[in-house]
């Protein structure tokens, strides 16, 4: 059986939760991935054409129960990196499994009862990017104005807009809509959060990061993953988290990035890496197995308090672990 080449430079997003199932390529196509596939870092290597279906996607997320939410790339855009000022509406597909999506992409095979279309209102002016995130069985959808790139190739954003939607399982308030319910079938807009830059989901809790460094958390808190000081109260509406409680009086700590594990939350700031929630498996990295009900800075991770000091610059979470990059 011939190997299929997967040039790493063409991968926009790896897809999978506990193992890699496939990837979203930069041209918007979906590709499967398995142990019999070899990868390549050489730019001249081209992946073997697999797709018979012309549908391309701009973002994809796979929930822990296996459902796939995929945002369809507008036909007017040739690649996911193309930007249009106005899209007529946002079209998303909800599939029961990644295999169902693959069958559709690879062979053009679709049982119409399997795919559910979700349409959102037209993007507001300037909201040209979309992010998706998923938990055990809930989904967040964020549309927003593009942020300036680190190399300065994009101009500074002067009029920033974003819109956040949520649907799916809401037993613990993880949709942030102010109530609990077994399930919400249609996306609901979360009000009063108008300047968001990123989102992430744990199994049953969610977070949203503000454009100016604000951190909002909502949902399941039985393991203190929301970091609000009590593990007995779930939060059904977004709560603004204050990290200054463990620092000096009057400190204002802006958040650079934030990520959800299954039952823990990790926050990257200029003052270090802060963590809250379950620590049963040592996922907080604080040299014990005691959970934290409030965000605590991990003093084992260096911060940039001196020009020559190495510091944390990137964070990622698995469902039960945490990764921190140091530079």
Automatic annotation (TrEMBL):
Q: Where are the RCC repeats?
A: 162-212, 213-271
Range of residues in the leader sequence: none
Q: Name one Pfam family in it.
A: RCC1
- SUPFAM superfamilies, alphabetized: RCC1/BLIP-II
Q: Which UniProt keywords apply?
A: Repeat
**Lineage top rank: taxon:** Eukaryota
Q: Which InterPro entries match?
A: RCC1/BLIP-II, Reg_chr_condens, Ub_ligase/GEF_domain
- Fetch the PANTHER family from UniProt: PTHR22870:SF445, REGULATOR OF CHROMOSOME CONDENSATION
Name of the molecule in the record: Uncharacterized protein
- Species of provenance: Puccinia coronata f. sp. avenae
Lineage in the entry? Eukaryota, Fungi, Dikarya, Basidiomycota, Pucciniomycotina
